[in-house]
Write a structure and sequence with these properties.
about 325 residues, two-stranded antiparallel sheet, globular
């Protein structure tokens, strides 16, 4: 039934986004991760990598078991309740509308000529220093965030939701949350966060590459540059420090005819990042708009293709059973 539930969840997200008044379940995963980190760090006899690996195992297991228990209980109460709860669980696992709204806030500030506001808005999307970015730098940072999160925030949870239902979507969300909290190469997390980073890399491997296909297809529909998306991925995706993020970022860069990456600053320290994309087009508020449309189109195509294939699989499976 996932091929029916996920489109409903996607539609619900388009209509409601991420209500600020409602505590998002991912915050509960974050609190669990923080508590588990404290627990295993307190066991000083454990090597940090082992403590980090145990944290990953406990958080992932607890999240999946909780989601399954909630879903089963809901279906025991009534099938309609079960369907509604499943849709809600899937809805909370994806974030296309939230990504769109954040990017739109930056774009609107740039269109209004308020660069300072645009810098503050983009700081909510990226981890780099934004206080000295010019208009093009703000636009580039926004497009990079939209590109990466098209995979992390939409395609990947859709992929695992299609395969394993709400439990699969939240398996991924827990993995992504752990990486966002612990997957840093600093003194505190270089060892402890190793397992979180590697597990998230594993979870994102297929979705990030399948996202390239969705971006290219969406670029064709939107009359952008689908061939450019493939060329940019071939030329530069593997140069990215992340084994996965370079794929959607390069695809967006190629489709939009811009370059992403280059120098940026973190905590006042300048860092050179490989350039993605083959054409150095100008970047401004309109580029952000095109990236937002590309994100929505790619996400919808990813969902449609995945749901369609799952539907055909079920048809073949049930026809063989009846035969």
């Amino acid at each position: 039934m996932t091929f029916l539930l996920l489109p409903l969840a996607f539609l619900l997200d388009l209509l409601l986004g991420d209500p600020q008044w409602f505590p998002h379940p991912v915050r509960l995963v974050g609190k669990l991760a923080s508590s588990t980190e404290a627990l295993f760090r307190g066991m000083t006899f454990l090597p940090l990598r082992m403590a980090g690996a145990l944290t990953v195992a406990m958080v992932i297991t607890s999240t999946v078991v909780t989601v399954l228990a909630v879903e089963v209980l809901a279906f025991v109460l009534h099938p309609i309740v079960g369907i509604a709860v499943s849709v809600l669980l899937l809805y909370f696992a994806i974030a296309p509308r939230d990504l769109y709204d954040h990017a739109a806030a930056v774009r609107n500030a740039l269109r209004a000529g308020d660069l300072e506001l645009a810098r503050r808005k983009v700081a909510m999307m990226v981890g780099r220093d934004t206080s000295t970015l010019d208009e093009e730098g703000v636009a580039r940072a926004t497009v990079e965030s939209v590109a990466e999160n098209t995979s992390d925030g939409v395609s990947a949870p859709l992929f695992y939701g299609l395969l394993f239902g709400p439990a699969g979507a939240w398996l991924y969300k827990a993995s992504n949350t752990l990486d966002s909290m612990f997957g840093y190469r600093n003194e505190r997390y270089r060892e402890f966060g190793w397992a979180s980073a590697r597990f998230d890399d594993f979870m994102n491997y297929l979705p990030s590459r399948l996202t390239v296909l969705a971006v290219a297809a969406a670029a064709f529909i939107l009359r952008l540059d689908p061939q450019g998306a493939f060329r940019a991925v071939k030329a530069g995706a593997r140069l990215h420090e992340s084994p996965n993020a370079g794929y959607p970022e390069a695809a967006f860069a190629g489709a939009l005819g811009v370059t992403l990456g280059g120098e940026r600053s973190y905590g006042g320290v300048t860092k050179a990042v490989p350039t993605l994309g083959l054409r150095n087009g100008a970047m401004d508020a309109d580029t952000i708009t095109r990236a937002m449309r590309l994100m929505y189109a790619a996400s919808a195509l990813f969902l449609a293709a995945g749901s369609g294939m799952l539907f055909v699989f079920y048809l073949i499976l049930f026809s063989n059973i009846h035969l």
